[in-house]
UniProtKB/TrEMBL annotation:
Protein name, as recorded: DUF3784 domain-containing protein
Bilayer-crossing regions: 7-28, 34-51
Keywords, comma-separated and alphabetical: Membrane, Transmembrane, Transmembrane helix
Amino acid sequence: MFKLGNIFIVSGVLLILLSAIGSILNFLPEIINSYYLTSTGTIFTCSGIIINKRGPLDRK
């Protein structure tokens, strides 16, 4: 579970950075808007943090 959370956090941060760089340099196509990338990156990052904060599923 923790690996999945880390993957979500890293991919979310990369999407946010891509949208920031893309809005500055204007290399993203019109279909991929930077707002979509930022919102998706935020959701991925928050999901990864929530997954990492959850307790283990092993209940005794």
